[in-house]
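Bumping my old thread because nobody answered last time. Still need a sequence for this structure:
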């Protein structure tokens, strides 16, 4: 048994669900959480939970204090900022760093910012014992940034495939509705989906487009609404299952990813999946689209049924053969060995 201290400043949505899944799939270890975020960790299997303080300097100190208080054998840092808090000064225990999508993958990151982020990652790489990544693309990047650290590809798994969540129960035929799941934030590129929605509205006004997630960015939310996209706000698991089960197409619009749990949740609900053509999806078999014009074309083809819809379904089903709780449980045993 190991004592694992999870550190994250974004315990919400995808990262929060990923942490919860890790805890649930490795109950033989004792898990503690040092956190900030919007979700509530109560009842999620943690032996203790401690809120991160407000300032960055205080957060550096909080990691060392939490290691001492919990007797942690391993610090598992989730996301880039938590990676700084756990590695900028010696944490007092081996550090496992899981970026959950390197910021360097953002294609819109200015060159100067890209250079600065890479320099910080390389500087902290010497204090990293293992990097946990979500795809082979991230593994190649980790090899350059933290060459002395071990590397493990830990596939994400559907967050909805967990005890207590009602299994998908189709209620009649799927609707002529396109959905995307995630926080309304620049990484998820709501503008890309909004442009797709505008093209769809010109060609078939009966097709609905809906964003499933919290409206974190008011300006981007307004852009979606101007395009006729409804924004659900945060949804509990059962409501998310109902939305994904009823949707005619799941379309993932993000500009960059590690590997999104939301796509796996859509696959688990057996929704036809289309994904924006980004490196995270290379080699997966998902049906991808390059731009909003191509996305609108493919959406209409999927909604029409036939071979394209079957391809979108099969790509999603194939994904779950490699990204499932059994595989993740095996990889976690290696990481915490």
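Sorry it took so long. Here it is:
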């Amino acid at each position: 048994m190991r004592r694992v201290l999870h550190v994250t400043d974004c315990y919400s949505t995808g990262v929060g669900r990923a942490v919860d899944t890790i805890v649930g799939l490795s109950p033989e270890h004792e898990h503690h959480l040092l956190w900030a975020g919007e979700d509530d960790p109560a009842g999620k299997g943690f032996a203790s939970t401690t809120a991160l303080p407000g300032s960055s300097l205080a957060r550096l100190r909080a990691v060392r204090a939490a290691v001492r208080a919990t007797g942690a054998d391993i610090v598992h840092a989730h996301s880039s900022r938590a990676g700084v808090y756990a590695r900028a000064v010696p944490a007092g225990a081996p550090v496992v760093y899981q970026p959950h999508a390197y910021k360097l993958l953002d294609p819109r990151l200015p060159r100067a910012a890209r250079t600065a982020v890479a320099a910080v990652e390389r500087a902290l790489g010497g204090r990293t014992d293992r990097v946990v990544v979500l795809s082979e693309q991230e593994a190649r990047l980790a090899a350059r940034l933290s060459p002395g650290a071990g590397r493990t590809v830990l596939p994400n798994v559907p967050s909805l495939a967990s005890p207590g969540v009602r299994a998908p129960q189709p209620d009649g035929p799927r609707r002529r509705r396109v959905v995307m799941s995630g926080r309304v934030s620049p990484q998820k590129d709501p503008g890309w989906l909004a442009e797709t929605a505008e093209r769809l509205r010109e060609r078939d006004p009966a097709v609905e487009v809906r964003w499933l997630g919290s409206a974190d960015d008011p300006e981007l939310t307004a852009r979606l609404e101007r395009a006729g996209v409804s924004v659900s706000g945060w949804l509990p698991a059962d409501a998310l299952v109902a939305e994904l089960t009823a949707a005619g197409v799941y379309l993932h619009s993000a500009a960059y990813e590690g590997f999104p749990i939301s796509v796996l949740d859509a696959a688990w609900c057996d929704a036809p999946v289309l994904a924006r053509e980004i490196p995270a999806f290379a080699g997966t078999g998902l049906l991808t689209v390059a731009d909003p014009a191509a996305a609108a074309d493919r959406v209409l083809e999927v909604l029409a049924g036939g071979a394209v819809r079957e391809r979108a379904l099969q790509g999603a089903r194939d994904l779950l053969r490699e990204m499932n709780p059994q595989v993740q449980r095996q990889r976690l045993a290696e990481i915490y060995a």
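The two ends are 9 Å apart (CA to CA). Let me know if any region looks off to you.
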